[in-house]
Fold:
Amino acid sequence: MSSPIVIEPLIRVENLKKSFSAGSSFSIKKKEVRAVNDISFEIYEGETFGIVGESGCGKSTTGRTILRLTEPSGGKVFYNGQNIFELKEKEFRKIRQDLQMVFQDPFASLDPKKRIGYSLEESMIIQKVGTKEERRNRVLELLEKVGFNEDHYDKFPHEFSGGQRQRIGIARALVLNPKFIVCDEPVSALDVSIQSQILNLLKQLQVDLGLAYLFIGHDLSVVRYIADRIGVMYLGEMVEKSTTDELFANPLHPYTKSLLSAVPIPDPDIKKERIILKGDVPSPIHIPSGCVFHTRCPFAMERCKEEKPVAIHVGENHEVQCHLYDK
Structure:
C-alpha cells in the first residue's frame, strides 16, 4: 500500500513575533508594543491566504516581517523548507526575488521623480538580471499584462490614476518572476468599481503564473472574494483560522462573529442581528492578561481574564483560540 502524498507549504510561519520599543529614547524604562504575538499559519503554492482584522491588529506588520522588511522578534518563517530568518543578508538576497510585495498606497511606493519604466526595471538592475534591452522588453511585457501599452513606459506616476498606479505596483512586484506576493491592503485606497478590476487582475495573474498570495485587508467582503483560507487577527494574535466558506458559514470566535455581523447583505428582506462590541481596543502597550479579547467579549468568564486560550482544532481546516470551545 503506497503512502499518502504530503504537500509541503510554500510558506510556513511558526510562532512569529514582532515587538517595537515605544516612548522616548531618554526613558529609563522602555515600553514594548507587541504588534505580532506568536502566530502560525501556512500558505500553499497557488493559494491565497487572507488576514483580516481592525486597524492596528498587526496585519501589515505580519506581512512586512515575513518578507524581512522589518526584522522579527521571534519565530520562524520557512520558504520551500528553508528558514529565511536564519539567512544572512547576502544569502537572503538570492531568494528575495521570489518574495515580493504590493503596497497599500501605490503613489507613496513609487518615486515621483522616476519614469515608470525605470521604476519597474530598478529591481532587475539591483539583482543584475538581463541586459538593458532584455529588461525593457520584460517591463513592456508586464505593462501589457496589467493593461497598459508602450506609451506608458516613459510617463511619471502623477500622470496615472490611483487604480492605474496600483496596476503598476502589481507589475513591479512581478518583474522578478516571484512565487509569493504579500498584498498589503492593495485595494483599500481605491474606488469600489476599481477595486473589482484590481481583484480580478490579481486572480487572473495567480492562475496564469501560479502565484501564492498573502492578502491583507479589513473589508471582509473583499477578502472573501479572493482568499481560499482566512485568518482573523485581534491585538497581534490570530484568534481564528479556517477555509473561507467554513468561516462565513460557521464563525466561532466572538470577535469573528462581530466582524461578520457588520458585513452588509444586498437584500432588504434578510434581517441580520448586528453584534456591537462594547469598549475600545486595548492599547498594544498594555495587552490584557489572559485572553486578549476578554475586555470586549460578551461571553467572557473569569478564566478568560487569567488564562490565555490555546488554538483548538474544531474541524479538519478550522482552528479557534477561545475557552468556549475548550472541552
